[in-house]
Amino acid sequence: MKLCLEKGSPERCDSAESFLQSGFWGRFKSEFGWTARHFLITVDGVEHPLLVLERRLARGFSFAYVPHGPECGLAGAEATVLLSELSELLRPELRPGCLFIRFDPPWYSLGPNPPAGGPDSEAAPAPRPAVGPPLVRAASDVQPPDTVLLDLCRDEESLLASMKPKWRYNIGLSAKRGVTVEEAGPEYLATFYALYKETALRDRIALHPEQYYRRLFDLARDHEGMAGGARPELGLWLARHEGDTLASIVTLFRGDRAVYLYGASSDLKRNLMPAYALQWAAIRAAKSAGCREYDFFGIPPTADPAHPMAGLYRFKTGFGGRVVHRAGSWDYPLRPTIYRAFRRAEALRSWWFKDFRKRRSGRERAVPGS
After folding, report:
1. Which CB contacts under 8 angstroms, 24+ apart, belong to 206-212?
2. CB-CB contact of 347 with 329 (8 Å)
3. Strand 322-326's sheet: what is its strand order?
4. What is the pLDDT of residue 224?
5. Rounded to the nearest 5°, which phi and psi values hold at 300?
6. Alpha helices for 223-356 (secondary structure H)
7. 181 secondary structure, DSSP code
8. Coil vs helix vs strand at 233
9. Among 268, 274, 280, which Cα is nearest to 248's?
10. CB of 236 within 8 A of CB of 186?
């Protein structure tokens, strides 16, 4: 395998398949503490854009992060060799105090197709794509490695037929009970954020300040990008009933891919199933916009009922998409001794915020009257 690296540009990165590798995403993250570095890599004569984000840590250290890249279509031993060689080529391009490069490779393995009306579980998770030494499994994933991808290259009747019966029923129930869904736009970000804060408090999840989401919409609206490149189109959707806003989601349509980015809901009138109505409206809009795939963007790895986010797995897999398993986050240590200390601290922090607090929240909600 012959690998070359050279400086690139934000406009060139707009040809990337994933929005996380786009010039738009680099520009956005650069306003929130990251330095966006754009490159072109050539693998066996084929050129690919590459976005690398770098962030400062304490005491003059930093780390680099490659979200859903590089988009080279490799797997197995070849992928490990590629990431290792690429890391060494990137080393002189990063700050001297950079401790490690974290990759979230885009390649994935497919889980079984969930049968329409089948059980709420996946028979057996497919093995993750292999990545190995000298890379180290990160103590915490940045992007969710598991997700559900819904094929939109079917008519609406077929999409509904592929869902579990209860999901079709809930979509119809929501409409019958008078829930309305509209793509409201960024002028309703305050409404979305109020619901998001309620969701974060209920589920013990972290969220950014409101300005973070507002700036995301601003940059998507103003993004020029590369001529002919895929433009990001952000949508803010609201589900309402008799004057009450019950739930809201944010989607991103870009090229042939649609992504469900954020979801928020109230405890009010949950029996009206507004979340189902929102997803169905967004799926139909994505199909009409020419998207070929709808990414639900994050589920637990299996249908384990003990997982703190087990309900998320059931909800997203019920729409009939294909479960996929990515490799997750992998680190290439540039300063191994300091990296090991950092990794231990990160593992403890991840356990506290992503496991212990969520499990405690689930136990509290299970107590009658809580």
Report:
1. 206/353, 208/32, 212/32
2. no
3. 108-110, 322-326, 146-151, 293-295, 257-265, 244-254, 233-241, 180-183
4. 72
5. -60, 160
6. 274-288, 310-317, 336-350
7. E
8. strand
9. 274
10. yes
**pLDDT value for 206:** 84
Tokens matching residue 150:
């819904």
Taking only Cα atoms into account, the Rg of the chain, rounded to an integer number of angstroms, comes to: 21
What six digits make up the tokens of 138? Answer: 């990160």
Alpha-carbon span 267 to 287, nearest angstrom: 30
Contacts of 304 (CB under 8 A, 6+ apart): 310
Rounded to 5°, angle at Cα 248 from 242 and 253? 130
CA–CA separation, 72 and 17 (whole Å): 11
CA distances (Å), 340 to each of 96, 138, 142, in order?
Answer: 18, 11, 18
DSSP 317-347: HTT--EEEEE---EEEESSHHHHHHHHHHHH
- The structure tokens listed for 143 are 């992007």
Tokens of 59: 């005491």
pTM of structure:
0.89
The neighbouring-strand residues paired with 101 are 64, 332
Residue with tokens 């300091």: 338
Tokens 């809580």 -> residue: 370
Q: Is 99 helix (H, G, I), strand (E, B) or coil?
A: strand
Task: Please name the amino acid found at residue 44.
Answer: D
Taking the mean position of all CA atoms in its chain, how far away is CA 300?
A: 12
Q: Is-contact 116 303, C-beta < 8 A?
A: no
Mean pLDDT per block of 10 residues along the chain (370 residues) reads: 91 92 96 97 93 94 97 85 96 97 92 51 64 93 95 97 96 97 94 95 88 96 70 96 96 96 94 97 98 96 87 94 94 96 88 55 36
Count of CB atoms situated within 10 Å of the CB of 115: 10
Burial 262-277 (b: 16+ CB within 10 A, else e): bbbbbeebeebbbbbb
Q: End-to-end CA distance of the chain: give it in Å, rounded.
A: 59
204 vs 276: CA distance, rounded Å: 22
pLDDT at 95: 97
